[in-house]
Amino acid sequence: MVDFNFNINSIFPQEVCLVRNDLIPAGYQGEASHASIRQQVATVLNVMGEASARAQGLKNAITSGNKMLNMENQTGYILVDKFGNSGMGSVVGLLKVGRKKLFLLDDVGKHNEMVPQCVLDFYVVESRQRS
């Protein structure tokens, strides 16, 4: 699990929480300023994106708070362990989906451009993965 020095449970109200490009989690109704929440969500996305990149052997992260801010057609899902980090919550996983331009070959070798919904990035903390 990935622990942070802020209360994950107060930011992400459900076990699986949706985040779009405004970086305000779906269902969030806290009293803190939105600037503060956006910064904390960006921190979570940065840390999880870096962990995903390391796990995949990539030089650069695919997911970050800044990248989410600049992409309207992407959605992140954050998986939270509500009981982790002494009750403040821990982040267990990340799934990012969105539309991406792909070029596919048909049966006769003709190129076809498509923009399907795709899994763009995912990560589950190693200690929570099946072996």
Largest sheet: 4 strands, antiparallel
Radius of gyration: 16 Å
Beta-sheet strand percentage? Answer: 25-35%
Output the structural class.
Answer: alpha+beta
Number of helices: 3
Number of β-strand runs: 6
Query: Whole-Å distance between the termini?
Result: 16 Å
Lateral arrangement of strands in the main beta sheet: 1-2-3-6
Question: In which range does the helix fraction lie?
Answer: 10-25%
What is the global morphology?
globular
Instruction: Report the uncertain regions.
Output: none
Order of helices and strands: HEHHEEEEE
- The overall pLDDT, averaged over residues, is 93
Provide an overview of this structure:
This protein has 131 residues and is of the alpha+beta class. It is built from three helices and six strands, in the order αβααβββββ. It has helices at residues 8-11, 34-56, 65-69, and strands at residues 16-19, 74-81, 90-99, 102-105, 111-114, 117-124. Strands 1-2-3-6 form a four-stranded antiparallel sheet, with helices on one face. The protein has a two-stranded antiparallel ribbon with strand order 4-5. A hairpin with an 8-residue loop joins β2 and β3 (90-99). The longest helix is centred in the middle third of the chain and has 23 residues, at 34-56. The chain is globular. It starts with 7 loop residues before the first helix and ends in a 7-residue tail after the last strand. The relative contact order is 0.21.
